[in-house]
Amino acid sequence: MKLINQIALACQLAVTAEAVTQSKFVSLDSYFNNKAFGIYPGQTSFDALNQSYPNPSIIGINGTYTSTHTGVVYDFPGYRGPVLPDNVVCEGQTIIVPREQYFSASMLVTSDVQLSTVSGNVTYTYSDNSTLVSELRSLPWWAFLTINRGEIIFPYRYTHNDTNFNTSHIFEYTAALNPNKTLHSITLPVTTNTTTGRLHIFSISLWESTAASAQVQFVRPTQKWTESGNQIVEVTINNPGTSCIAGPGVNVSLSMPGIQTLEPGNIKRLCPGDQKRVNIGINGAANGTATVVLNYTHSIQNQTYPHTLSLGLTEWTSELSSLSQHESPEWFDDAKFGIMIHWGPYSVPGWGNSTPYESYAEWFWWYTTHRAADKSDTYDYRLRTFGPDWNYDDSFPSFTASNFSPKAWVDLIAASGAKYFVLTTKHHDGFALFDTQNTTNRSSLHYGPRRDLVSELFTASSIHHPSLKRGTYFSLPEWFNPDFGPYGFAELPGNTSTSWPGIIARNPYTGLNEPYTGRIPVSDFITDVMVPQMTILAHNYSTDIMWCDCGAANGTASFASEWFNSARAEDRQVTINSRCGVAEVSDFDTPEYATFSSAQLRKWESNMGMDPYSYGFNRATGWQGYMNASTVVRDLVDIVSKNGNFLLDVGPRADGSIVEREERELRRAGEWIRGHGEAVFGTRVWWVRSEGVGVRVGSGDGGQVELRFTQTNEAFYLLFLGEPGKEVFVDAPVPLLEGDRVVVVRGDGDGEWEVEWEGSAAEGFMFTVPEGAWDGEEFCWVLKVVYVA
């Protein structure tokens, strides 16, 4: 009905129509200096190990490639015979481009060393000799266990003498340009160290500017749905013009035979050089081209979207092409902050030593049996603490959970400000905290506390904090379960590599086999243990997040398709992480004890412990070693500004008590988070930039404070990671117009303190904060731009 009304209204308003513009290729032929694609092992040397990608034609890429997330079209070289190069190793080259005005620059890029993220600055030079610097960062071209899903996924890679069937990837990068300036050249960074990793660029494509104030770049049907049950279609809108979209903004809908737009999207503020993605809710199913209707207050603009769209919610299948359409749901993108809990028999020894020799305490058993990798005195600690005859399973009776209060735990999670939690339901030791039914008796129902700990925690959450989403960490392999033997592996070459051998552990002092208590022998570990246990967590415990770990051999594809379908039937939108062993079944990346230095379009979640370097309880960590509230808040704000979520881990003791320092700092952080949550939860990244600096002017010291940006459809937030003082200057094109209000966001809710401001997007903004407005504020200081104009 709304769409019909819009069309009728168009008869009374000015109506314009135009087609969506396309990308402009930048020729790289003369710059190619490396060969990435081959047709057999050892044919070429993409990296220092003489490895390479396969021919892109095996995945249907022949000449050009269209991004599935941005709509940018690339000239993609592909395989060019046995000799000709096909990509650029960044060596500081300056690439001359056709002199025009462009809205953005996009690249297909990757780095070439396993486990190494590589970055460098790209410099864009305009015809007036002004420059723009943007970080070009790429994850490694292949990874094992924790998969970084690329824009382009290859099913394997060639080594120097074999084919490795772990996926390989090429990633996409985009930089926001000034659409009102003429671009002259692009200067690449210098990344030539083959040990630390090099950046390789396969293609550069420039998105052309137009005179319009709003330009549709991409229409992307998703398999997500609104609360009303309508399919979500994501529309990417650019403003390459010279004035801001303001006031009521623009309503966005889709016109197409067989489709109704029941929930139009709205963009209230979009200034020159900015881009936003807006969700619209549609009903119906159709295939074909569509018109995007941009409805302003006094005019309607119809933009023809020339690419074929396939609309309608479909059943999931185990085919990778189907599974690849799954993505993180809106609630996960909005949630931002979660708590992870590592708890199990490893909490009994609770030993990982201390910095700089600390290792994960939950890996205690493995380190004691792999001395070459033991940097934390784990072997000696076990001997002097428990004696030579003690076996890991002797920890079961001491894993009592005697002080475990499920309500106290979920109360603490809620008090921390978190919106979801992830409990370790089974770690690599194979000991489960849930009812594993007939797959194994190695669980907390049969040993230790003899309780269903997952059920108790989930039930307490559903009763006392029903809004909390509940997730299940689940280790796919088990270190020493002999049934996993046929699938056993090491992550890297050498005897110091982490490994999941799938053989009975030997007591490192007596040489005798250690027991694997509770094991039920099975025919096949994947079909009889792994997948059934994942299914139990999905259905019997109704997990919202399947948080896998160490996905090598797996049965994830069939599990995921069945889970996605059943969850949809229950009107539940669930999510799955990047560690389940199948690249296409990855809703979000999971960097560990790491963050990103620039925003990433693909959803990600950084996970780290409050302990300096352990997830499980580590008795060697002193009071001051744990993360404090200030760091929690700073990390959260930094991660959220770059399109990430923050999953913060606590490691309870074996009796279920939580370290007092962790609890205290979580509650302190929670006070800030609850008081300033509007600047965090439900926000989206600012496409123009994610960070900057504020210059303290009024204090007289001219000092700089780090600054992050977030936004909603109604407001824009400046989050200072240091106290900005009474007067602070921000050199950034903040979407702030005459008539807008700027206020201080105070944690105590003490009214709205109006902030005086002056300046412009071109010259920067000076903010003058009232005396006393910052009193009582700590950790992060927030200004809010309220869109009024």
TrEMBL record:
Output this protein's name: alpha-L-fucosidase
Renumbered to this chain, the signal peptide range is 1-19
Cell membrane as UniProt keyword? no
User: Which species?
Assistant: Aspergillus niger
Q: Which family does it belong to?
A: Belongs to the glycosyl hydrolase 29 family.
Top enzyme class: hydrolase
Molecular function, one GO term: alpha-L-fucosidase activity
Q: Which SMART domains match?
A: Alpha_L_fucos
Spans through the membrane = none
> What highest taxon heads this organism's lineage?
Eukaryota
Q: Which GO terms of type biological process are on file?
A: fucose metabolic process; glycoside catabolic process
Gene3D superfamilies per the UniProt record, alphabetical = Glycosidases (3.20.20.80)
Q: What is its EC number?
A: 3.2.1.51
What function does the entry list? Alpha-L-fucosidase is responsible for hydrolyzing the alpha-1,6-linked fucose joined to the reducing-end N-acetylglucosamine of the carbohydrate moieties of glycoproteins.
Q: Which residue numbers delimit the Glycoside hydrolase family 29 N-terminal domain?
A: 315-678
Keyword set for this entry? Glycosidase, Hydrolase, Signal
